[in-house]
Amino acid sequence: MRKLISLIIFSILLVPNYQLFAQTDEGDGDSGTPAPAGDKYGSDPDQCKMNLSLYGEFYKQKNYADALVPWRWVFNNCPASSKNMYIHGGNIIEYQIKKTKDVAIKEKYIDTLLMVYDQRIKNFGQEGFVLGRKGVDLFKYRENDVQTAYDYLYKSLESQVNKTEPAVLLTLMQTTILLHKAGKITKEVGVENYAKISEAIDAQIAAKPDNENMTKAKQSIDELFANCPFSDCEALINTFTPKFKQNPTDATLLKNVTRLLDKKNCTDSQLFFDASEKLYEIEPSAEAAVNMARMARKKNEFSKASSFYLQAVEKQDSAELKSQYYLELADLNFKDLNQYQQARTYALKALELKPSLGKAYLIIGLAYASSAKSCGDNDCTQRAVYWVAVDKFIKAKNVDSSIAEDANRLISTYSANFPGKEACFFYNITEGQSYTVGCWINETTSVRF
Question: What is the dihedral of CA 23, 205, 347, 356, to 10 degrees?
Answer without folding.
Answer: 10
